[in-house]
Amino acid sequence: MKMRPFKVSDPKPQVEPALDQGQIVQAALGLLDEVGFDSLTMRSLAKKLDIQAASLYWHVRGKQHLLSLMAEEICAPMGEPDRTLPWRNQLEVLANEYRRVLLAHRDAARVLARSGAPSGPNRLRLTEIVLRTLLDAGFGHKDAAYAGFLLNDYVTTFVLEETQDANAEAESAADSGVQNWVKALPPNDYPSIVALADYLMELDVDERFQFGIEILRNGLETHLARRKA
Questions:
Q1: Final residue of a structural domain among 60, 88, 109
Q2: What is the CB neighbour count within 10 angstroms for residue 129?
Q3: 195: domain range?
Q4: What is the pLDDT of residues 163-177, one digit of tens each?
Q5: Model confidence over 44-60: pLDDT tens digits?
């Protein structure tokens, strides 16, 4: 009886899933929502995508490039205000829209703050809309640029603070002892704090945001009037 030789086949090499940049960015945003900014790394993203970390660099140059791409995607849903509205109202719409998209993802404000200057079409479009609105209102070139920075800084910083301590604030709100402690401070030493305790502990962040936008708009309007006088 003739025996056939046992043939061992070579194991098939593992093939990593085909990816494009858009899929990577969506996975990065999903990971951001899951673990937050501090735990978002190229290695953790590669693990989520079930690929080798080195494979990411075929599509993304590094962490900074990834943040830039994520910032682009975060800003993509921003709508443009009605250009027939007064410039004050257009700025209010833009500020609220910007805050809305930053609140749509966990730590999105940190991504925008760390992503560098706008370079993609979505963020450049947003910058163009803001600056055009200010120029159409009559601001000079330097004032329009500075006002654009001011609006961006206000919204980004507000959302950073709003989201950074959201859990701690919720716990404090549930603990009436904190508010009672503030009210129990020696009124002779801290009369202003005691008098404003209810408002200092108030968690109506929407109202606080609108208050800041109103002050910002009023200040810009006064500045513009003085320039034109």
A1: 60
A2: 19
A3: 78-228
A4: 986 655 555 555 566
A5: 999 999 999 888 999 99
Contacts of 28 (CB under 8 A, 6+ apart): 40, 45, 66, 69, 70
Question: What is d(CA 77, CA 81) in angstroms, rounded to the nearest whole number?
Answer: 13
SS3 per residue for 47-94:
HHHCCCHHHHCCCCCCHHHHHHHHHHHHHCCCCCCCCCCCHHHHHHHH
User: From residue 2, how far is each of 5, 8, 191 by CA, in Å?
Assistant: 9, 19, 104
Show which of 33, 60, 87 is a domain's final residue. Answer: 60
Q: Does 50 fall in a domain? A: yes
Residue 181 and residue 222: Cα distance in Å, rounded? 40
Average pLDDT taken over every residue of the chain: 88
Contact 202, 81 (CB under 8 A): no
- Does 108 share its domain with 46? no
Tokens of 59: 């599509």
CA distance 33 to 1: 66
Q: Which amino acid, 195? A: A
**What's the number of domains the chain is made of?**
2
What's the CATH code of the domain at 34? Answer: 1.10.10.60
What tokens does 192 get? 């202003």
Alpha-carbon distance 157 to 113, whole Å? 9
1 within a domain of the structure (yes/no) = no
Q: What is the 3-state secondary structure (H, E, C) of 116-170?
A: CCCCCHHHHHHHHHHHHHHHHHCCCHHHHHHHHHHHHHHHHHHHHHHHHCHHHHH
